[in-house]
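Schema walk-through. Below, the input block comes first and the output block second. Nothing else is stored per chain. Lengths vary across the set, and this one has 90 residues.
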Amino acid sequence: SLGGRAARGRALPYRVKLKVGSARPVRQVAKVEVYTPAGEKHAAYSGNIELRAGKGQGEIPFALNDPKGPWRIVVTDVFSGEKAEKTVNL
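--- output ---
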């Protein structure tokens, strides 16, 4: 989930929660990839986050000069390969 609205010059917090059904969530890693409106991966905003008990959080520190438009955020569970995607307009 995304916490708030995306804005240039402001960090956008996000939370990740794995859906594990009846299984007990363990310590895992999720890969977060952030793509610009041009479709290019933004390496400085992308990376891995640790998930404890199936939950983790982070933020995207948008700069004042980041391009306006739809930014794509793709989160991948490293263990299962499951993906989730959100788009935010900056």
